[in-house]
Design brief:
36% of the residues lie in helices and 20% in strands. The chain is an alpha+beta fold. It folds into 3 domains: 324 residues, Vaccinia Virus protein VP39 (Rossmann fold), CATH 3.40.50; 221 residues, no CATH class; 62 residues.
Length: 641
Amino acid sequence: MVTTPLEIVKYIVNRVLQGCCRNKKPSDILKLRIADIACGSGIFLIEVYDWIIKYITEWYIKNDIKHLMSIGNGSYKLSFDEKKEILEKCIWGIDIDVHAVEVARFNLMLKLLESETEPSLRGRRKILPDLQNNIKYGNSLIDFEKINYSKLTQLDKNEIVPFDWENINSGKLFDVILGNPPYVSTEDMINLLNKKEVKAYKNKYNTSKGQFDKYFIFVERAIEKVKTNGIIGCIIPNKFSKIKSGEALRDMLSKNEYIEEYIDFGSLQLFKYRNKTIYSSILILKNAKQKEFKFVEVDNMSKWYSNLELKKIKVESSVLGNLPWALVANENDMSLITKMYRNSIRLGNEVELFNGIQTSAERPPIYWFSDKEILEESKLYFKIKKKDKQYVIEKDILKRYFKPVLKKEKNLGSYDIFDTNKFIIFPYNCEGKLYDLNTMKSKYPNALHYLMDNYLELEPKQIGGKRRDVPLAKKETWYQYGRDQALTAFNNKVKLIVGVLSKKAMYLYDDNDFVISSGGTAGYCAISEKDGGRYQLEFIQAYLTHPFAEKLLSIIGSDFENGFYSRGTNILERFPLKNINFNDKYQIKLYSDIVTNVKRIHEVNKSLKSNLSKASRQVLLDEKKYLVDNTEKLVTCIYNL
């Protein structure tokens, strides 16, 4: 268990309680019901309890100081009985860890006894309250309505711990729910939790779509369990606002306009994990429609804690939807982003998006080699040197392979001249089917010999190996790639090669059938024209290369340290593409001029690869610069439509 930073706890508690306690009398405060439905050892509840005690004490100092007990030096405090009453009436919690429940009860009672002395407690028959009714053991996500209880074995019940909500707060809804819910991926839930529990999560919650995280359904559950106008405050990973699996949660929050405040900590690390990074956010919700909400960007924790130089903005709730949230704490940028989404469609509706290949044998690289490793070349073969050994590889089993390794290879922009000096053994036919061993022996014996010489590195775990994970591997297919994705995507298909993890636009136009290394959150993915699509690839290249697109992608792409952000297929699929009216002469002219410019840029790049005089090269470079600048101006007009 990792403890939530106290400053974060204090902020959430103060932010939430200030709103629901403003101008309330002590008698009104005692009517509030505040819960943490994944309370752990009670850090949020202790802070809530302390906040309420201070609020009521300050109220009496201003309005009825005689009500308080003087403790000298001009200080006052509530009586023990009043503090006990606050604890018993206002503070509630649930946790699935029975030991955490005991710790939470103990910590709250210690807080109750704080500043008390033997004289202040004298004469009481029973000093401590019974918090068994307030802090309960159970699974707050699974009640008897969300699972078929009659079909659970005793072991199931012990593992799942279904919770009866009638046993807490008399079954009534809460005024406030806050806390730090657990972050558990679908994969970990499947591996660690009872199967019937995971099934209930998937079947009974709207936000549990695809590869969901457990905190999604905690947010949904909290909304179910607060009153109308009730408030929710939680710290959760910020990736829900951008990733595909967060679409259902984004949809629920935006459609109902629940959000009061959203604080994004970007790539700052609030929690101290070993070998793990968590990108965090604070979400403040209200169970009532909010026409606007406050968005805050935090890039310096010290300034945020001190309330200095805050990057914040009021945003209309209508801006949000199930697409990745494009939020920035700058009015001009926010206005631009709103304009980009207006009259747009998803990029994925108009183009094909696909990842590169994944061999699962990259360290050291087995399947590919660079020209530095080539010793000789003939019409049919390459002779290469690998691991101080020489091999002959048939050219017919090779494809040119785009995998930048050196710094100069990686730092490419969309219109840069590029090439590849690498080749990859591609043991598949044009239909994406693996060559069987007989074919390998008869047509590509030299390549097979090389692969056999690296058998220990290539043998999949599924057939007894130690290194490669190849889910579909069999003994006779041991040399297949780690994944069977994109195997036919590189057959005579013009494409844009996209740098997934990047600081700048990289959409390289490739008409040479380069095979590319895999994408995801790193590596490369690709874009090609879709059958029936209305947009030519040249236009897409210019549209995505534009600074406006980069601004948006830096916001909706997953944040990484050192200024990198992801633009993988999941992000690009939902990128807003202006819905051009091809019946409008002005829009057609803009579109055509952009395509013409970009085609000419490609021609210039091919010419620049040849052996030119210095003067001729400079003329072409000047033309290219003009074309690039002019194209950007034209695309600006498209974005402003």
